[in-house]
Write a structure and sequence with these properties.
Elements (H helix, E strand, L loop, with lengths): L1 H14 L45 E5 L2 E6 L8 E6 L8 H12 L3 E5 L19 H7 L2 H16 L6 E7 L1 H9 L8 E5 L6 H5 L5 E6 L7 H14 L3 E6 L15 H21 L2
Parallel strand pairs: 3-4, 3-5, 5-6, 6-7, 7-8
Antiparallel strand pairs: 1-2, 2-4
Bound molecules: 2-acetamido-2-deoxy-beta-D-glucopyranose (4 copies).
Length: 285
């Protein structure tokens, strides 16, 4: 009996109704959201890696896209036909790392579109440790239906006024769930990449039809070994084009911010960036 219960606990995120069924996902992993130190810059120590920005401010601009405040980063060519939809973590487009990473993807030749998923109500980088901050209330203000609506209208505007022909999406933590949801048949994404996704349920992995690449962190408690294996088993059974990488000593959030003086963590962050670029070079360029 005990063994069975433990097994059930392991499989729970994929097989049972989640504790917060009203949200459609389990909010528990959020307590693992971005532990550790904040870094403001995407780093590259390696001179041969030219795509990644170092010590600078973001260089894109904000515009209304489909009625949503959106950060846009253009490639050198200014062409918009091949684009990346950037779905942020809970810190939103207001967090400079999320704009620098968008700028870095633009340097790799992509038009990057990063909507404000939270209508000006992101979680501040110093708010997670604040005992007066109510995460449950914040989640209730930004349910999946609201995020879905923003992603849908952004995709429509990209394919409309912005002249986009192919759309890849990146999603970090919170945003990863929506990469999965919009890789389903007819939802509008041609390929996707997610790093340390949170709150993705089995049905969402199952419905994916277009190529998906995932960067997992060994220390990310929101993707346990059992959960990673379950996701891979699903991709194998649905026979989609997929890739999963597991980075050692990498925590939840590592692809957006981490301790860059730690060589393993710096490696994980840079590799996740290049993993995404290679993926889109292969499947949407
Ligand atoms: C970034 O912007 C701030 C404020 O606009 C400015 O003071 C600073 O010099 C800029 N840094 C770089 C590296 O451009
Ligand atoms: C946090 O927000 C939830 C949902 O609005 C509410 O039920 C709960 O009482 C709040 N908790 C605190 C400590 O205020
Ligand atoms: C899986 O997909 C590949 C092409 O992507 C195809 O060649 C193969 O037949 C498929 N396998 C099954 C079992 O459908
Ligand atoms: C960052 O990593 C370095 C090298 O491993 C370590 O000495 C330092 O304590 C770490 N900083 C934090 C805040 O964890």
């Amino acid at each position: 009996m005990r063994v069975q219960l433990q097994l059930l606990a392991l499989l729970a995120p994929f097989t049972l109704a989640t504790p917060a069924a009203e949200f459609g996902y389990d909010p528990a992993p959020l307590k693992h959201e971005h532990p550790g130190q904040l870094f403001n810059h995407v780093n590259s120590k390696s001179k041969c890696l030219s795509g990644v920005l170092t010590d600078t401010n973001s260089t894109g601009k904000y515009e209304s896209v489909g009625g949503i405040n959106t950060y846009l980063a253009y490639p050198k060519s200014k062409k918009t036909d091949i684009a990346i939809l950037y779905l942020t973590d809970i810190f939103g487009v207001q967090f400079v790392n999320n704009r620098l990473l968008a700028d870095s993807l633009a340097l790799a030749g992509y038009f990057v579109v990063e909507p404000d998923l939270f209508n000006g109500d992101p979680i501040g980088v110093d708010q997670l440790g604040d005992p007066s901050f109510n995460m449950t209330a914040w989640r209730e203000r930004h349910p999946p239906a609201a995020i879905d609506a923003i992603v849908s209208s952004t995709i429509a505007a990209m394919r409309g006024d912005l002249g986009v022909k192919k759309i890849g999406a990146v999603g970090y933590c919170f945003g990863g769930k929506y990469v999965a949801r919009f890789l389903a048949e007819g939802k509008g994404l041609d390929a996707g990449f997610t790093a340390h996704p949170s709150g993705v349920v089995a049905e969402e992995w199952q419905a994916i039809v277009n190529p998906l690449s995932i960067a997992f962190g060994e220390l990310d408690a929101s993707s346990t070994p059992a959960q990673r294996a379950a996701a891979e088993a699903i991709f194998t059974s649905t026979n989609i084009t997929f890739q999963t990488n597991l980075y050692s000593n990498a925590e939840h959030g590592f692809a957006v911010r981490t301790n860059l003086t730690d060589p393993q963590k710096a490696f994980a962050q840079e590799s996740a960036y290049f993993q995404a670029v290679r993926w889109f070079d292969a499947w949407i360029k």
